[in-house]
Design a protein that fits this description.
β9, α9 (297-311) and β10 (319-325) form a beta-alpha-beta unit. The chain has 4 domains: 21-148, Signal recognition particle alu RNA binding heterodimer, srp9/1 (2-Layer Sandwich), CATH 3.30.720.210; 168-346, P-loop containing nucleotide triphosphate hydrolases (Rossmann fold, 3-Layer(aba) Sandwich); 352-422, Helicase, Ruva Protein, domain 3; 433-622, Peptidase M41 (Methane Monooxygenase Hydroxylase, Chain G, domain 1, Up-down Bundle). The strands form 3 sheets. The chain has a 6-stranded mixed β-sheet with strand order 6-8-9-10-7-11. It has a 5-stranded mixed β-sheet with strand order 1-4-3-2-5, with helices on one face. The chain is 47% helix and 10% strand. The chain contains 20 helices and 14 strands. With 643 residues, the protein is of the alpha/beta class.
Length: 643
């Protein structure tokens, strides 16, 4: 293992138990202890004279002479410097008094006449007080300089160790996660398991002449479990596993990141076979020479050092590097060539078969009711990542607690999905009757078109209750997983999005601001049809991709690779597509105006209706089955919504 990092005060954390905290051990005294010691010393200095006078009776000088004349005094002890007299009476009582500056001769004669034992001595010295008077200032001064020296040493140790790697090392003694904890992704686990097997039993790979990849790059959207898979490798590997994030290499001083990379690989070589895992690789692996001013010196030096360590003159035999990123498009090409990160493993969003085991993993430890069917939940959560599914299960449990239920029911999952997809319901928002009617017809227009169009996804739920940032929501769920989207499907999606605006226009004769989000989505979708997907006959089979740059400065002077004339043609085609779909929406809604009125009336009455109710009302008003014949649908694919 790598030695522990130095303590900011210069102390080592690996000191064996029982070692005293001496100045040489590197552990400075806590500040309260120093002040306690100083206080005890001052108390001893002040209490020393009082201790010598304890049990002594103080009398005035006249009373003392009267006691002498009465023959009650046995002995006296006189301090020549202060004329302080201490004595003892016949009843063994000790007393003290103070004489004039010089004791008169007649008083001395009186003492001798009465047979009092006399003793004269120079000023008494307090040994403890004398020692403290000289030692205490010197000791405090020495203690102060020693403390200042320890602070300076700790600061120097922190500066000298700035180039050391911050990687955390995991060994076989601390397996926290294994492949059994990673649900689904069998293909990903198989490729990762090859790396683990090579490190455990490299002989069977060498016998056949196979060479394991030096670098494995996990690529996928956020929340798909890339870091979880890396933690599972740490639990399965049986070899040292060093974990670090890309931002740990970066520092305000130029060259520190490169020094940390060198230290990381030196430590890994000493422990080979070993796995190095770098999370968020894109923070240091971005393309060199890009950005304002030509790039970032510290990041590029760190990247150059990592490239050299992975496949340079020095061999890294037995060291396998893993990394995770959700931005592979901005990585430097030198990182992705063979010999470095020569194997890219895509960790996509889970499909239907993978969502069910993921839900089962996250449902462990939670009390589920008998009516909960996780397969139904899995069908109703297309496009959700593993993190989204974990959040969904947790939201369902929280909803059950709010209902004061001891078990999590299917209704809790339904409410949790609505909250995740549509946002938190805003019960405090008060809408007027006119606003509710506009919202009801707006959402009714979406719902009627989603039911009537052949290629549109079926309606799952419609509500006019404000949720999140929306005043109403029409929720559609696909019948099956889609990986390719055809042009008829996209055009029907545009019609459904424009349905709310057209419904307001047909019923009220005007338009409102409620269609803002619909128009933004329609425009973006139509622009992609023309610019990226080649779905415009006028533009032809050309694609230019997104205009968004990787990061500012990479292509500052050339934001698009087509002419102004082509840009005008693109804008005209986008407008033409939206106009055609708007006309389709107006035509379909005009023919199904009775169904639109019934759906809007049901929304005003119930506030929330499900897809089956929408279909029944539209068919009732039309006097026929409006929905075109489609592939048979599983009854579990859509779960009725609750208001």
């Amino acid at each position: 293992m790598t030695p522990p990092p130095p303590d900011p005060r210069g102390a080592r954390k690996d000191r064996p138990p029982g070692t005293p905290n001496l100045p040489g051990t590197g552990t400075s005294w806590p500040r309260p202890v120093v002040w306690v010691l100083i206080g005890v010393a001052l108390l001893a200095l002040l209490a020393a004279p009082a201790m010598t006078r304890s049990g002594t009776k103080k009398i005035d000088y006249t009373t003392f002479l009267d006691r002498v004349r009465a023959g009650e005094v046995i002995s006296v002890d006189v301090d020549n410097a202060t004329s302080h007299i201490t004595g003892e009476l016949k009843d063994k009582t000790k007393f003290t008094t103070t004489a004039p500056a010089k004791i008169p001769d007649q008083d001395i004669s009186l003492l001798r006449e009465k047979g009092v034992k006399e003793d004269y001595h120079p000023p008494s010295s307090n040994l403890i007080g004398s020692i403290l008077v000289w030692v205490l200032p010197i000791g405090l001064l020495v203690l102060f300089w020693w403390w200042m020296g320890r602070r300076a040493q700790g600061q120097m140790a922190g500066i000298m160790s700035i180039g050391r790697s911050k990687a955390k090392v995991y060994t076989t003694e601390k397996p926290k996660t294994t492949f059994a904890d990673v649900a689904g992704y069998e293909g990903v686990k198989q490729e990762i398991r090859e790396v683990v097997d090579f490190l455990k039993t490299p002989g069977k790979f060498r016998d056949i002449g196979a060479r394991i990849p030096k670098g494995v790059l996990l690529v996928g959207p956020p929340g798909t479990g890339k870091t979880l898979i890396a933690r599972a490798v740490a639990g399965e590997a049986g070899v040292p596993f060093m974990s670090i994030t890309g931002s740990d290499f970066m520092e305000m001083f130029v060259g520190v990141g490169a020094a940390r990379v060198r230290d990381l690989f030196q430590t890994a070589r000493k422990q080979a076979p070993c796995i190095i895992f770098v999370d968020e690789l894109d923070s240091i692996g971005r393309k060199r020479g890009a950005g304002m001013g030509g790039g970032h010196d510290e990041r590029e030096q760190t990247l150059n050092q990592m490239l050299s360590e992975m496949d340079g003159f020095e061999s890294t035999e037995g060291v396998v590097m893993m990394a995770a990123t959700n931005r592979p498009d901005i990585l430097d090409p030198a990182l992705l060539r063979p010999g470095r990160f020569d194997r890219q493993i895509v960790v996509p969003l889970p499909d239907l078969e993978e969502r069910l085991p993921i839900l089962q993993v996250h449902a462990k430890g939670k009390r589920m009711a008998d009516d909960v069917d996780l397969s139904v939940v899995a069908r109703g959560t297309p496009g959700m990542s593993g993190a989204d599914l974990a959040n969904l299960v947790n939201e369902a449990a929280l909803h059950a607690v709010r209902r004061e239920s001891k078990d999590v029911h299917m209704d809790d999952f339904e409410a949790a999905r609505d909250r995740v997809l549509m946002g938190q319901r805003r019960d405090s928002m008060a809408l007027s009757g006119a606003e509710k009617e506009v919202i009801a017809y707006h959402e009714g227009g979406h719902a009627v078109l989603a039911y009537a169009l052949e290629h549109a996804d079926p309606v799952h739920k419609v509500t006019i209750l404000p949720s999140g940032m929306a005043l109403g929501v029409t929720q559609q769920l696909p019948i099956e997983e889609r990986h390719i989207y055809t042009q008829p499907y996209i055009e029907d999606s545009l019609v459904v999005r424009l349905g709310g605006r057209i419904a307001e226009e047909l019923v009220f004769g005007n338009r409102s601001t409620g269609a803002n989000n619909d128009l933004v989505g329609c425009t973006e979708l139509a622009r992609k049809m023309v610019r990226e997907w080649g779905m415009s006959d006028r533009v032809g089979p050309m694609a230019w991709g997104s205009q968004g740059m990787v990061f500012l400065g990479e292509d500052l002077m050339h934001s698009r690779d087509y002419s102004d004339d082509t840009a005008r043609v693109v804008d005209e085609e986008v407008e033409a597509i939206l106009r055609r779909q708007e006309d389709r929406a107006r035509e379909v809604l005009s023919s199904l105006r009775g169904g639109l009125d019934l759906v809007a009336r049901a929304l005003l009455e119930k506030e929330t209706i499900d897809g089956a109710e929408v279909g029944r009302l539209v068919d009732q008003a039309a006097g026929r089955v409006v929905r075109p014949a489609r592939a048979p649908q599983s009854p579990e694919a859509l779960t009725p919504g609750k208001g």
